């Protein structure tokens, strides 16, 4: 703007008559215009400086950046602490759920295994009755009659073979007999006391006599042995 004004003033000065500049009473109009242009240019420059000073942002006070940094660092530390606690809680919950699911899986596997092993308990109890009948049948035959009666001897041998074969089947399926002896300590998990016997010199709470055999299936008592027990005198 100022350069344009100065160029216009110079052009106007060239167009004025020469005598106009030789007059000592009047100020040359060209010089006056030049002076006005310079004043206008100075005023414009001062306005620019004033506007620049108004738009310039005030400098922050000393230590303000450190305070902001410390505050931000404090917030980040608090957020990190919260996140760490949340991660720990979630990890504990995950481990607890994992352990619980593992326990459930083990219990289910054991139940399935037990169901496979002991699913024949009812059938076994029925066969135990058959085994008892065969045992009583073979024990009731007099030994002297076997030599005199060939038919009775053949029948006895057939029953004995059947009993032996039945015991083989029991052993094949992990079925064991419970045969307590006299003087054995009474075990409520293996024995069932039907009566008590008084006898001097015998320890109380021990087996006196065996009435019926017991059986175990995979080391689990399916039918306890029926016994008589000595009582204290």
UniProtKB/TrEMBL annotation:
Gene3D superfamilies: 3.90.20.20, Head domain of nucleotide exchange factor GrpE (2.30.22.10)
Organism (species): Octopus sinensis
Role of this protein: Essential component of the PAM complex, a complex required for the translocation of transit peptide-containing proteins from the inner membrane into the mitochondrial matrix in an ATP-dependent manner.
GO cellular component, one term: PAM complex, Tim23 associated import motor
Locations listed in the record: Mitochondrion matrix
GO biological process, one term: protein import into mitochondrial matrix
Gene designation per UniProt: LOC115219056
Cross-referenced PANTHER family: GRPE PROTEIN, GRPE PROTEIN HOMOLOG, MITOCHONDRIAL
Coiled-coil positions: 73-100
Pfam family, any one: GrpE
The name this protein goes by in its record: GrpE protein homolog
């Amino acid at each position: 703007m100022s350069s344009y004004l100065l160029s216009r003033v110079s052009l106007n000065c060239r167009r004025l008559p020469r005598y106009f500049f030789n007059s000592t009473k009047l100020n040359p109009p060209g010089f006056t215009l030049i002076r006005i242009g310079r004043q206008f240019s100075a005023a414009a420059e001062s306005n620019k400086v004033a506007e620049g000073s108004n738009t310039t942002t005030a400098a922050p006070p000393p230590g303000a950046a450190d305070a902001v940094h410390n505050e931000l660092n404090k917030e980040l530390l608090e957020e990190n602490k919260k996140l760490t606690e949340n991660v720990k809680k979630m990890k504990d919950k995950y481990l607890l759920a994992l352990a619980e699911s593992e326990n459930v899986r083990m219990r289910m596997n054991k139940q399935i295994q037990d169901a496979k092993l002991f699913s024949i308990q009812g059938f076994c109890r029925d066969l135990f009755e058959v085994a008892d009948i065969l045992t009583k049948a073979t024990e009731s035959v007099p030994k002297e009659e076997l030599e005199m009666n060939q038919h009775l001897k053949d029948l006895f041998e057939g029953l004995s073979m059947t009993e032996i074969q039945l015991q083989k089947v029991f052993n094949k399926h992990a079925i064991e007999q419970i045969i307590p002896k006299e003087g054995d300590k009474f075990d409520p998990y293996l024995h069932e006391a039907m009566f008590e016997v008084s006898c001097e010199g015998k320890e109380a709470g021990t087996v006196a006599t065996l009435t019926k055999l017991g059986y175990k299936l995979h080391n689990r008592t399916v039918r306890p042995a029926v016994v008589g027990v000595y009582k204290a005198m």
